[in-house]
Amino acid sequence: MKKIRIAIAGLGNCASSLIQGIEYYRSLGKDDPHRSIGLMHYNLGGYRPGDIEVVAAFDIDKRKVGRPLEEAVFAKPNCTKVFFKNLPKYKVTVQMGEVMDGVSPHMMDYSEDRRVVVSGERPCDVVEVIRDSGTQILLNYLPVGSEKASAFYAEACLTTGASLINCIPVFIASDKKWAKRFEKKGIPVMGDDIKSQVGATIIHRALTKLFIDRGVRIDSTYQLNVGGNTDFLNMLNHSRLRSKKISKTEAVQSQMDNPLTDDNIHIGPSDYIPWLNDNKVCFLRIEGRGFGNIPINVELRLSVEDSPNSAGVVIDAIRCCKIARDRAVGGVLTSPSAYFMKHPIIQMPDEEARHMVEEFIRGERKR
Fold first, then answer.
1. What distance lies between CA 62 and its chain's CA centroid?
2. Can you tell me whether residue 284 is helix, strand or coil?
3. 8 CB burial (10 A radius; 0-12, 13-18, 19+)
4. pLDDT (tens digit, 9 = 90+) per residue, 199-234?
């Protein structure tokens, strides 16, 4: 099979984990018992993790711009765990992207080790880089709240014919106007806001569905998340959280027959704790009533390394997107988006979405 040529906008912790993962799984022999650990699919439609090749990368931090890809993924303020250090020497130099709304002003109040330090380099011609590199799929890994910058990269995809996988909670693939534009151009697009393999949202959805299926009435629920990476630092600016809260809340509300009022559901980041680094801790509570109107409450604490947790889903999203390109399928990939994303254009139960994704992979379902 041919290589899957990807570009990455935003070379933070998530990109670091993804690139380490590609090389980690590529390094394992066909008989290695660890080959399938951490993957929903090792072979997906004929494509393996090692078939993914990064051909371009964009960032705005002076410690990454102009550096080789294999060095930039480990540069500050990245703080995710290093599980595959000996990356090969790529023929990729990180290009200066457009800043726009990619950096929140409040981050200037924190040390350089913790925040983005904007490079003084002139932004590159993103469209030209995408074309010249032969990029097939662009991953949007920009910070939460980067609405103008995300739209800029989406436009670049429409101009060049590259597909977009929107991993952040800015509404592109779930926006009907954007969706129609990608469909008209015949370009596959997937989004919005990547789920983790076993993260706060997927567990919250599963427990919510369990309560409903077992006849329990949910009265109220919360999900509070804390972490110490740049994503959590960025989200201290609550004005950047509107789409994030919508995305995570709708992901849970969609599992209920009768959604809760705003006063009875709270989902979103709570605080930034520097020493946690890329570790994310979720505190989740569901209050409901069961048989005889008797109360039942569930409390859960989840601790995960945030970025590798999402990379395991992105690696499948990339391969599904490439399958769509191989089949000349354009527009929003509704089944993969419903399974891999928190805010897809069509919400559905996870088991149903998983079944539809398997049909899509086998070629039994167009989108």
1. 24
2. strand
3. buried
4. 999 999 999 999 999 999 999 999 999 999 999 999
